[in-house]
Write a structure and sequence with these properties.
By secondary structure, the protein is an alpha+beta fold. The protein has helices spanning 4-7, 19-40, 50-63, 81-93, 98-101, 110-115, 118-129, 245-281, 293-323, 328-353, 355-358, 363-373, 381-391; strands at 135-138, 154-158, 161-171, 179-186, 194-200, 206-212, 220-231, 283-284, 287-288. It is built from 13 helices and nine strands. Strands 1, 2, 3, 4, 5, 6 and 7 form a seven-stranded mixed beta sheet that branches. Strands 8-9 form a two-stranded antiparallel sheet. Helix 4 runs antiparallel to helix 9 (293-323). Belongs to the acyl-CoA dehydrogenase family. Its cofactor is FAD. Residues 18-130 form the Acyl-CoA dehydrogenase/oxidase N-terminal domain. It holds the Pfam family Acyl-CoA_dh_N.
Length: 417
C-alpha cells in the first residue's frame, strides 16, 4: 500500500537521485512479491516457507536490490549507503512480508568485505551478496552476552592451525547456513585477544543444540564447539590477522546500526499508514474517527516523530556516502531514536485501530511484538547511551563501550547474511 502523504515528507529530498531505483523496487514488490504472497494462502510474516524466502532473495539479487551497497565485482550494486538505507526503509514500509526477505540482513556481510582476504571474499562473500549462500554469526554466550572483551569460547594454536572450544547461543539461520563467523578468545597473550574464524557448516566438533523461539522473528539456536580443528587460513583476514577481531567489529557497527534504524523507520511508517487508512474509513457516532481531535493527535505526533527519525537516519547514511564513515555516536543516536519511534508509532496506531489491530494475525499485532525487540538488537539502548556519553567526554575512564553486534536473526525476518 502506498501513501502520497508519506512520499512528500521532510526527507523526500534524500530520495530524489534514487527515485528510479525505489520505483523499480516497489514495482518488484507489487508485481512479483504481492501475488506470490497471495498464492501462499495463510502464512504469517514470521513463518515464511524457506524455499520461498530463498527464491525471493535470489530474485532480489538478480534485480540488484539485495545488497546494493556492495562492490559490483562481488555481485553487489556499487551503490552508496543512502540507497541501501532507502531500500531497507521501503521494504519495512511495505505491508507485504516478502519484501523483508528481499533485503540482506542489516548487519550484512561487512566483516568479510572490510577484512577478508581476496580469496575469502571470492569464496565466502560473493555467494552471500548474490544470495546463493547463507551465514550465521556466533558471538553471544550464556555467561557473557555479546561482550567481546570477555569471551569464554577459546581458540588455541595447535601446530599450523587452531583448536576451538566453547558455547554460543542466539544464532540465526543455523539450520541452513553454509558457514559461521565464530568469535573466540585467543589464548595467546596480547591486549586484544579476540579473533574471528570462518567455520564451514558441518565441520567436525560443531553441534547444533536446542532452538529458541522469541516473541517475534525466526528461531534462534544454540551451538557447541568441541575440539573444532581449523587451519590457519580460517582466520578472518588470513594468517597474522588474529588480533583484529575488535577492529573488525568496531568498523562495521555504525553501518549495521544505521541500517537497523532504516528498517525501524520503514516499519513505523507501515504502522502509521495502517492507522491513517483506518482513521479515514472507520466511522463512529456518525462521523469518521479521523475527525476526532484525540485521534488526530495520535497520528500527527506519530508522523512528526517518524519524519524526525528518518532525517537523522538518512543524514548518517548520506555522510557515509559522502565521506565513507559514520561516527559511532551518530549511528547510536539514529538507532536509539528509530527504535523508540517504531515502538511509539505502533502503540499509537494500535490505539487508533482498537481491537481490530490487537487481533492475532493483523499486521499491527506482529509489529507490536517486533517493535519490542528492536531496542535490544545491534546493542541495547543503554549501550548506545554509553557510546553517546563517551563522545560527550562523560563517563568513567575505565569503562569501554560494548562491542555487541546484532545477531543475524534479529534483523529483517528471513535475512540470509
Amino acid at each position: 500500500m502506498e501513501n502520497a502523504e508519506m512520499d512528500s515528507g521532510v526527507t523526500a529530498h534524500f530520495a530524489t537521485a534514487h527515485r528510479a531505483q525505489l520505483a523499480s523496487f516497489r514495482s518488484f514488490v507489487s508485481t512479483e512479491l504481492e501475488p506470490l504472497w497471495r498464492e501462499l494462502g495463510e502464512p504469517t510474516a514470521e513463518n515464511l516457507p524457506p524455499d520461498i524466502k530463498r527464491h525471493v532473495r535470489r530474485r532480489s539479487a538478480e534485480l540488484g536490490f539485495y545488497a546494493p551497497e556492495y562492490p559490483g565485482r562481488l555481485g553487489g550494486g556499487d551503490q552508496p549507503m543512502t540507497v541501501a538505507a532507502l531500500l531497507r526503509h521501503a521494504a519495512g514500509r511495505s505491508t507485504c512480508p516478502l519484501a523483508h526477505a528481499a533485503m540482506a540482513g542489516s548487519e550484512g556481510p561487512t566483516w568479510l568485505l572490510t577484512h577478508g582476504t581476496p580469496e575469502q571474499q571470492d569464496q565466502y562473500l560473493a555467494p552471500l551478496i548474490r544470495a546463493q549462500a547463507m551465514r550465521s554469526t556466533a558471538i553471544t554466550e550464556p555467561g557473557t552476552g555479546s561482550d567481546m572483551f570477555r569471551l569464554a569460547t577459546t581458540a588455541r594454536r595447535v601446530g599450523e592451525g587452531w583448536l576451538l572450544n566453547g558455547h554460543k547461543i542466539f544464532l540465526g539461520n543455523l539450520d541452513r547456513v553454509d558457514h559461521i563467523l565464530v568469535f573466540a578468545q585467543n589464548e595467546e597473550a596480547g591486549a586484544d585477544r579476540s579473533v574471528v574464524f570462518i567455520v564451514a557448516a558441518g565441520t567436525e566438533g560443531l553441534q547444533v543444540r536446542q532452538s529458541f523461539q522469541g516473541m517475534s522473528g525466526e528461531p534462534l539456536f544454540e551451538l557447541r564447539l568441541t575440539e573444532v580443528r581449523l587451519p590457519e587460513g580460517a582466520v578472518l583476514g588470513g594468517p597474522g590477522h588474529a588480533h583484529l577481531a575488535m577492529a573488525q567489529a568496531m568498523t562495521t557497527q555504525p553501518i549495521a546500526r544505521v541500517l537497523a534504524a532504516a528498517e525501524c523507520n520503514g516499519l513505523a511508517e507501515q504502522a502509521l499508514m495502517l492507522a491513517l487508512a483506518h482513521a479515514k474509513e472507520r466511522s463512529a457516532f456518525g462521523q469518521l474517527i479521523g475527525s476526532f481531535q484525540h485521534v488526530q493527535e495520535l497520528l500527527v505526533e506519530a508522523r512528526t516523530e517518524v519524519e524526525q527519525s528518518k532525517l537523522l537516519t538518512l543524514t548518517c547514511a548520506r555522510r557515509h556516502a559522502d565521506e565513507g564513515e559514520i561516527p559511532h555516536e551518530h549511528a547510536s543516536m539514529a538507532k536509539n531514536v528509530a527504535a523508540r519511534t517504531f515502538s511509539r508509532t505502533v502503540d499509537r496506531a494500535l490505539q487508533v485501530l482498537g481491537g481490530r489491530g490487537w487481533m492475532k494475525g493483523h499486521p499491527l499485532e506482529y509489529l507490536y511484538r517486533y517493535a519490542r525487540m528492536m531496542p535490544l538488537v545491534g546493542g541495547t539502548t543503554e549501550i548506545h547511551k554509553v557510546i553517546i556519553a563517551h563522545a560527550l567526554g562523560l563517563g568513567s575512564g575505565q569503562a569501554r563501550p560494548s562491542s555487541a553486534v546484532p545477531e543475524d536473526p534479529w534483523g529483517i525476518p528471513g535475512q540470509a547474511t
